[in-house]
């Protein structure tokens, strides 16, 4: 397979702080070092980028460091990472907006980057004039734009206003027009940065649909940056994970997303409950989830388990367990119960494991937590109550719909089918 | 693309590929000027007409500066339109990076297209003002004033190219230097208007005292203004030596400009 993009030990050095009078002396030192045939003196001292650490005396920072990868023709690649991991810098270097401080980038084919919609729009000019302006900025010829003009206007849905100056447009209309121009770009390599996050619901649906169309048929190479894991997992087969300016992982989108999620969650104490039983009573010693992804992240439609480890010091009569699943808005979504008459447990002393298996988790995407009641006497006597434990998140990365899922749209997703007769 | 880019590394082939963008930039510059105005393109005429009238009153009437024996209106208008083209080429291109930082930060295209577009739309504006000059010229010719239009007018296009390239060369040097250090911005604002006094726009070269002549002749724009005026009115100096010197300065300034510009365009987004 032929290569579309080859990146070789790419690095990008940035200077922190203000550009002012001090800059001149640095420039002179740098120039002097160069004149003597030495490398950039500040390149050596630059440290890896971690925005959370307080700025040290060191004013130089590697926004990207030692990045090497290849992208084959026709690949659709997602780039994920936390804020400040270097995603946008990478896109800027690849789309030739700024040159790398070290290393090489080789690009074969016509490249277009979409880091913003409607670049170069002039508010005084009409929609028509701006379509041509924006299109030529993105690298189209006037002939190309003219031949697609009607489709562009149609896609944007602003035909009534096309001869009105764009300063009279609503901001949404401007975004639509800008995206419409970009949607009809036909480069061999397309670089897209988080542009789907704008516009209204209907527009997002169109935009995502168009992206899908572009990436699936057409054999085009696409690089796509987004914080929307949903979009990434639908569009991209392969993904890169950036971490503090370096390439932390490269591979199947599925596993890259997992490792991103793993890195993302920090408070592990909230994910499982663990407490050694030092009393003479019966207690839950451990409570944890078995989820499809690491760090308590569960795919909708997949099996999930809630596992108890109970230290039963005394025999319990009529033991019962109730699990409440509560969402982020404190609404009780589910109640999962186990009574002694369903299954004999806590009849003898000792430690045992108890697993509640949900064959198909149907919870809608969002954040949830558990409340657990451990009781005796058929629910009448409280033994132990665990509040707000086992925080978990349900995602719907593999669930496709022609338009994006939005937060809190529903409570759960039922299995269903349609029958036409 | 690599971290080590050579000199003169302007992607000329890309420039050709983006020629439609050049066209759109020029079109934008032209149409945006008369949007929401009643007089529209007529404003192109107003500026040189008013300036000419003021100069006639102030420099010709009050200060009594010689106009080398040709009508004042002709003398000043010829100087004004050619000087305007130079000063606009310089000031507009000197803002290339700062004014377009937004676009440059989002899309790649050969940056050199922006200054080229500025001098091209400036040329269109010049041509419109040139019409005004021709009308003034025609009026005097019809009135029977003795005016010698010389065969040198065939070289006028070369004078214009020189003006445009010299202005752009200086402009792109300034814009490249001001991305990091804005200090020069202050210089350019009044520098250009001061430079006009070192150019025979409001006075003829022939009236310059010997003491200052060398200085005025060192200014490459001098020969262009004088040559332009000579070609159309017969007043002024057509000096092949001077024009050769101007041509040489233009080539040097432009080469230097392109060299600095092509270096700066790589990384200016990091420092702007």
Automatic annotation (TrEMBL), chain A:
<keyword id="KW-0813">Transport</keyword>
<dbReference type="InterPro" id="IPR003593">
    <property type="entry name" value="AAA+_ATPase"/>
</dbReference>
<dbReference type="InterPro" id="IPR003439">
    <property type="entry name" value="ABC_transporter-like_ATP-bd"/>
</dbReference>
<feature type="domain" description="ABC transporter">
    <location>
        <begin position="46"/>
        <end position="269"/>
    </location>
</feature>
<dbReference type="Pfam" id="PF00005">
    <property type="entry name" value="ABC_tran"/>
</dbReference>
<dbReference type="GO" id="GO:0005524">
    <property type="term" value="F:ATP binding"/>
</dbReference>
<dbReference type="InterPro" id="IPR050683">
    <property type="entry name" value="Bact_Polysacc_Export_ATP-bd"/>
</dbReference>
<dbReference type="InterPro" id="IPR017871">
    <property type="entry name" value="ABC_transporter-like_CS"/>
</dbReference>
<keyword id="KW-0067">ATP-binding</keyword>
<comment type="similarity">
    <text>Belongs to the ABC transporter superfamily.</text>
</comment>
<dbReference type="InterPro" id="IPR015860">
    <property type="entry name" value="ABC_transpr_TagH-like"/>
</dbReference>
<dbReference type="InterPro" id="IPR027417">
    <property type="entry name" value="P-loop_NTPase"/>
</dbReference>
<keyword id="KW-0547">Nucleotide-binding</keyword>
<protein>
    <submittedName>
        <fullName>ABC transporter ATP-binding protein</fullName>
    </submittedName>
</protein>
């Amino acid at each position: 397979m032929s290569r579309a993009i080859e990146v070789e030990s790419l690095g990008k050095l940035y200077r922190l702080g203000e550009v002012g009078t001090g800059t001149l002396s640095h420039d002179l030192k740098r120039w002097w070092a160069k004149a003597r045939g030495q490398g950039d003196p500040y390149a050596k001292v630059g440290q890896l980028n971690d925005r959370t650490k307080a700025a040290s005396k060191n004013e130089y920072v590697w926004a990207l460091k030692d990045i090497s990868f290849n992208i084959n023709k026709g690949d659709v690649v997602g780039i994920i990472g936390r804020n400040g991991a270097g995603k946008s810098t990478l896109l800027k270097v690849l789309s030739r907006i700024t040159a790398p401080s070290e290393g090489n980038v080789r690009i074969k084919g016509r490249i277009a980057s979409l880091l913003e919609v409607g670049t170069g729009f002039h508010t005084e000019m009409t929609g028509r004039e701006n379509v041509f302006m924006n299109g030529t900025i993105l690298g189209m010829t006037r002939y190309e734009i003219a031949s697609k003009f009607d489709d562009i206007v149609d896609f944007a849905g602003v035909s009534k206003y096309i001869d009105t100056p764009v300063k009279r447009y609503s901001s949404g209309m401007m975004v639509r027009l800008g995206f419409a121009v970009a949607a009809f770009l036909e480069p061999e390599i397309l670089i897209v940065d988080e542009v789907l996050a704008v516009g209204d619901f209907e527009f997002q649906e169109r935009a995502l649909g168009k992206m899908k169309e572009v990436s699936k048929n057409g054999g085009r190479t696409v690089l796509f940056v987004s914080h929307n894991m949903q979009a990434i997992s639908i569009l991209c087969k392969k993904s890169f994970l950036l971490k503090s300016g370096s390439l932390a992982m490269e591979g199947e989108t599925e596993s890259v997303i997992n490792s991103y999620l793993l890195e993302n969650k920090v408070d592990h104490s909230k994910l499982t409950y663990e407490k050694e039983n030092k009393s003479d009573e019966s207690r839950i010693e451990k409570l944890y989830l078995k989820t499809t992804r690491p760090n308590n992240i569960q795919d909708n439609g997949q099996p999930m388990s809630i596992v108890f480890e109970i230290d039963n010091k005394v025999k319990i009569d009529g033991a019962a367990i109730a699990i409440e699943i509560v969402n982020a808005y404190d609404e009780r979504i589910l109640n999962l119960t186990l009574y002694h008459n369903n299954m004999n447990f806590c009849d003898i002393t000792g430690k045992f494991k108890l697993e509640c298996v949900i064959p198909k988790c149907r919870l809608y995407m969002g954040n949830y937590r558990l409340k657990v009641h451990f009781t005796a006497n058929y629910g009448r006597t409280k033994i132990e109550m665990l509040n707000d434990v086992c925080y978990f998140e349900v995602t719907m990365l593999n669930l496709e719909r022609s338009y994006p899922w939005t937060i809190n749209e529903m409570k759960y997703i039922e299995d269903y089918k349609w029958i036409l007769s | 693309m690599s971290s080590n880019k050579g000199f003169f590394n302007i992607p000329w082939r890309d420039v050709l590929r983006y020629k439609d963008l050049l066209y759109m930039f020029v079109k934008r510059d032209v149409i945006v000027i008369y949007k929401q105005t009643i007089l529209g393109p007529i404003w192109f005429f107003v500026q040189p007409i008013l300036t000419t009238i003021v100069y006639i009153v102030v420099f010709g009437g009050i200060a009594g500066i010689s106009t080398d024996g040709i009508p004042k209106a002709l003398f000043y208008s010829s100087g004004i339109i050619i000087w305007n083209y130079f000063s606009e080429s310089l000031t507009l291109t000197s803002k290339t990076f700062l004014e377009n930082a937004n676009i440059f930060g989002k899309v790649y295209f050969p940056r050199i297209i922006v200054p080229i577009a500025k001098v091209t739309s400036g040329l269109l504006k010049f041509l419109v003002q040139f019409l005004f000059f021709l009308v003034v010229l025609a009026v005097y010719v019809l009135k029977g004033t003795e005016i010698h239009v010389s065969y040198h007018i065939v070289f006028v296009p070369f004078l214009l190219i020189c003006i445009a390239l010299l202005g752009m060369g200086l402009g792109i040097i300034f814009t490249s230097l001001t991305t990091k250090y804005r200090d020069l911005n202050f210089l350019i604002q009044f520098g250009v208007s001061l430079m006009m006094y070192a150019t025979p726009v409001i006075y003829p070269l022939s009236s310059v005292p010997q003491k200052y002549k060398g200085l005025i002749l060192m200014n490459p724009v001098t020969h262009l203004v004088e040559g332009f005026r000579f070609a159309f009115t017969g007043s002024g100096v057509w000096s092949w030596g001077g024009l050769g010197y101007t041509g040489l300065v233009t080539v040097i300034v432009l080469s230097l400009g392109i060299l600095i510009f092509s270096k700066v365009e790589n990384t200016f987004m990091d420092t702007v």
